[in-house]
């Protein structure tokens, strides 16, 4: 079904030189390439486009050393960093964005922004919407059908709209609300603490404009992004620990509070055109390998839409959107995301100048700390975005699983801990069975983990002391067929105990909300835990703890 839709909505962009607007030409149907408004022939222009608003037009004029407002009467569109001015391409190199005098541009924008006009822009947009209305009608019709079909097995109170403040989630919020004829659906806004200022303003405006919507804000109040980055390094493209700690985890907490152990359906604004990884998504995902929060099924109504389709919907349906897009941003997640391109960084140096300076200074200091020979080049070239693992970081030591085999007892290992044996460590063994302090040898401070059905001991935990191991625990497995498999999962829990940075991933993988991670520690509620063992499942949580991925080095890669 997904492949068929992908082909059905596959399209390219033609240009009408008479009307000065782009036309979305379907690759599936034998579409007439004449402009539906003026009936003149059109020519191929690009694979996808986004509109350039008057605020970005002013910046473009200044960047190209034109007179301010030279492009006011021109129809300007953009594909990545290639601009089309009345249909003529004008590529802007990454080097231009990298070397631009942002302070000068900022002052020039301030001086000329009062004369910005939307009159001509609005006329072009009106024509664009009118010319492409058939495309829009087909997109809406199909999306409504998908939404209704997907939602039919869920009570409406269990239907969630994931609201990020971006254009895609704005479309999804509007189109799902209309398809289900329900303006009181639950919206969850993940405030990552790294939001664009415009995103925070827009989220407040959205709440006021949608008074019947149940609007929940998910925010991690316990962590400071900069302090975490100092400890484990800044996020990188393949190591975006911030997503779990500041978005997925807090959202999971909101779901736990609202729905306890109920399954929910979440409509997302994910689109396959955004990245290679997202192009592999199914339109409905509910398997443990694909869904970040296991209690939810994820549905993507606009998975196959292009950028220009999203803007066609927003502008035709008069849907409010984030004002950061008017400035030229084409994505509005975290403002310092390693996935941001050179143009986005350039824009932030203009519109978020102080924050950008502080972030750049932090990256330089980080590069020095991990021993980079030329920190400026490492940062300015973007090499920091490609870093992998915890090389050069003291915190990388915490993920190493150090143990010795016990010579006096079979199937027993002595594990090194970074701190004293305590109740938090004992609680980490709840997924394996019923934890019993009473039945263990009290003189040895032994704790037993029992099979929940038979009460047969499976695991023995004992505080232990041995040369070179200041804090340690002896763990013995019993009455199981595969001791090696159980010890491997036990090692995952030892890694959690030693390396936990409260990323909140474990809360997200628990369907029944049994795991709570706070400043007081990691707690598994034995009355809620159903021993599904998802928190020690390699397919769900590689090596038991995300820090194992983010802090591993060549030495620890296979531990």
Distinctive features:
single chain; 559 residues; Rossmann fold; six-stranded mixed β-sheet; six-stranded antiparallel β-sheet; 19 helices; 21 strands; 35% helix
CATH architecture of the largest domain: 3-Layer(aba) Sandwich
What's the Cα radius of gyration? Answer: 27 Å
What is the total tally of β strands? 21
The number of helices is 19
Shape: globular
Overall mean confidence score, pLDDT: 92
CATH topology of the largest domain: Rossmann fold
Percent of residues in beta strands?
15-25%
Overall number of domains: 4
Low-pLDDT regions: none
* CATH class category label of the largest domain: Alpha Beta
Can you tell me about this structure?
Helix content is 35%, strand content 18%. The chain has 559 residues and is an alpha+beta fold. The chain folds into four domains: 2-120, no CATH class; 133-327, HUPs (Rossmann fold, 3-Layer(aba) Sandwich), CATH 3.40.50.620; 342-390, no CATH class; 395-550, no CATH class. Strands 10-9-8-11-13-12 form a six-stranded mixed β-sheet. α8 (197-209) links the parallel β9 and β10 (214-218). α6 (133-151) crosses α11 (307-316), α7 packs across α11 (307-316) and α13 (342-351) packs across α14. The model has no long low-confidence stretch (mean pLDDT 92).
